[in-house]
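Severity: low
Component: inverse-folding endpoint
Summary: output formatting inconsistent between runs
Steps to reproduce: submit the following structure tokens with default settings.
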């Protein structure tokens, strides 16, 4: 079984805890099989983030994907959730097994259609026991600019390579990059800022839209501070534009536009 996770928070959920509005998970393996790691996160309505992850010395990528998902289900079983919450993952193996294949495996005594024993049965059984009926998994393409998927990937890869990345412990906004390596001279806060600015450029160039929770993470503002905004506004070097379904898109401003450098000056 996987090593004990490195948790970002401890203790039971409080009755007045904010609802979870976003959840994501990912796994990684160097060699497959080989040293592996997994990472997952929960984003809350008040803008805070909890991250989890761990390493395993000898494993596979699929086992790490399943372990990350299992951790989220166990955490979410005792937390208040937004009714539209889904768990985002780039693993079709996880989604297909959890939503479709598992029923057939169980009927066949945990054997595949070809009569072979199901791989990773221990984790599939644990996932089945932790199942939350009204909480689906949603597929996102890996490395496509999804901030939470990218963050979980960074955690998982760092653990698989023997690192111990810094994990958000309920802070507002979360951590966008791994802990600074000793040889890197730039302060960690500056590295985190640079990572967010580079991500904003990627999102703008790709035309990706963001949910309110994702936007709040990027600009490091509580969701409540952004919820009432309906008009375009400026954040640093980008125009933040409303699009359909209560989502937002970034557009880079031309240099020297002379506009306000931060939408907060206009919106308070």
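Observed output (run 2 of 3):
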């Amino acid at each position: 079984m996987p090593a004990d996770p490195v948790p970002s928070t401890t203790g039971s959920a409080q009755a007045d805890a904010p609802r979870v509005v976003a959840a994501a998970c990912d796994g990684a393996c160097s060699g497959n099989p080989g040293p592996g790691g997994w990472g997952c996160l929960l984003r809350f309505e008040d803008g805070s983030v909890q991250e989890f992850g761990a390493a395993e010395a000898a494993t596979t990528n699929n086992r790490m994907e399943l372990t990350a998902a299992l951790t989220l289900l166990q955490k979410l079983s005792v937390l208040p959730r937004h009714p539209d919450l889904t768990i985002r993952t780039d693993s079709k193996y996880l989604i297909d097994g959890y939503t479709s294949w598992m029923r057939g495996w169980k009927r066949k005594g945990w054997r595949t259609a070809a009569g072979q024993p199901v791989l990773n049965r221990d984790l599939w059984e644990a996932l089945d026991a932790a199942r939350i009926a009204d909480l689906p998994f949603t597929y996102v393409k890996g490395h496509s600019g999804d901030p939470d998927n990218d963050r979980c990937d960074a955690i998982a890869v760092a653990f698989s390579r023997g690192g111990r990345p810094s994990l958000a412990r309920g802070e507002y906004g979360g951590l966008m990059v791994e802990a600074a390596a000793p040889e890197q001279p730039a302060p960690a806060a500056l590295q985190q800022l640079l990572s967010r600015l580079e991500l904003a450029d990627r999102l703008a160039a790709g035309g990706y839209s963001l949910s309110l929770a994702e936007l709040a993470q990027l600009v490091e503002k509580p969701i409540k501070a952004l919820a009432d905004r309906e008009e375009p506004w400026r954040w640093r070097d980008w125009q933040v534009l409303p699009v359909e379904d209560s989502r937002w898109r970034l557009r880079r401003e031309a240099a020297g536009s002379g506009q306000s450098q931060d939408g907060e000056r206009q919106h308070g």
